[in-house]
């Protein structure tokens, strides 16, 4: 008996080049080496959104370098397609991607951009962009401590792993961190824990940690120890300072 030949699977459906509107973005779906003229690049669309004004503009050449994406495939399954969406350089595979797949890749592209952003802001160009946001525009607000004298805050992440902690705000004077406004719900991994130290090493004139003075813990001018009592140098022995006590002791001895 002659074996039946297996039928070849049907070729994948090819879609025309189109624009998919999703999440306030206009996503170009199709093979291209550069973003078409009638479509704004993905990075500009992301950074020019009002809710994303804390992010800096990552250069396309930096995002294209696969070395900068090392290890991100654990958090972004479709790493290559997400990177192509960010850089607006699509391979031929994009002609066979459905609209639902484009939306899923866009969601992963936002995570990838955030992870790239945490690395980018620790480079020379990224630090320069963040300095403008921190100092000139005071984009991240001021420290609520009175003794910090309205020092500008900077973003920081507690963990480099996504979906663990939200972004916090670091003060370079009191070295403390604070919660951001309630409407700023960024992932802390998109800014990373290394940014404040890198920023202060690069710009040491913004490091006020050694000039920070706490409000004095004192009563009527006498400083108290952290445990609540008077500090040792402020304590005085009764026999050396309290002459009235010595007089009382002498009077009681004389009566006896």
Automatic annotation (TrEMBL):
This protein's UniProt keywords: Kinase, Transferase
A cellular component term, taken from the record's GO annotations: cytoplasm
Q: Name one Pfam family in it.
A: CK_II_beta
- Report if keyword Cytoplasm is assigned: no
One molecular function GO term is: protein kinase regulator activity
InterPro entries recorded: Casein_kin_II_reg-sub_N (IPR016149), Casein_kinase_II_beta-like (IPR035991), Casein_kinase_II_reg-sub (IPR000704)
Which intervals of the chain are annotated as region Disordered? 231-256
Q: Compositional bias of type Basic and acidic residues: which residue ranges?
A: 243-256
SMART domains xrefs: CK_II_beta
Tell me the superkingdom of the source.
Eukaryota
Keyword Protease appears in the UniProt entry: no
On subunit structure and binding partners, the annotation says: Tetramer of two alpha and two beta subunits.
The UniProt entry's sequence similarity note says: Belongs to the casein kinase 2 subunit beta family.
> Under what name is this protein listed?
Casein kinase II subunit beta
Instruction: Report the source organism.
Output: Tritrichomonas foetus
């Amino acid at each position: 008996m002659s074996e039946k030949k297996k039928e070849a699977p049907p070729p994948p459906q090819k879609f025309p080049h189109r624009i998919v509107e999703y999440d306030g973005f206009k996503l170009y779906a199709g093979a291209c080496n550069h973003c078409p003229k009638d479509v704004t690049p993905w990075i500009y669309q992301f950074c020019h959104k009002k809710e994303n004004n804390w992010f800096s503009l990552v250069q396309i050449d930096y995002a294209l370098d696969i070395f900068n994406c090392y290890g991100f495939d654990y958090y972004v399954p479709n790493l290559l397609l997400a990177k192509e969406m960010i850089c607006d350089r699509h391979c031929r595979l994009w002609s066979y991607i459905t609209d639902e797949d484009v939306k899923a890749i866009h969601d992963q592209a936002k995570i990838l951009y955030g992870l790239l952003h945490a690395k980018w802001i620790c480079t020379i160009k990224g630090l320069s962009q963040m300095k403008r946001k921190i100092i000139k525009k005071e984009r991240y607000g001021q420290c609520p401590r009175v003794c910090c004298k309205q020092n500008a805050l900077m973003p920081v992440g507690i963990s480099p792993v996504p979906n663990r902690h939200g972004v916090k705000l670091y003060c370079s004077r009191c070295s403390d961190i604070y919660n951001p406004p309630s409407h700023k719900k960024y992932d802390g991994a998109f800014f990373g824990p290394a940014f404040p130290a890198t920023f202060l090493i690069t710009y040491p004139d913004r490091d006020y940690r050694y000039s920070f003075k706490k409000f004095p813990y004192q009563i009527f001018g006498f400083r108290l120890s952290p445990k609540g009592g008077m500090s040792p140098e402020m304590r005085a022995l009764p026999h050396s300072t309290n002459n009235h006590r010595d007089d009382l002791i002498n009077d009681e001895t004389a009566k006896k």
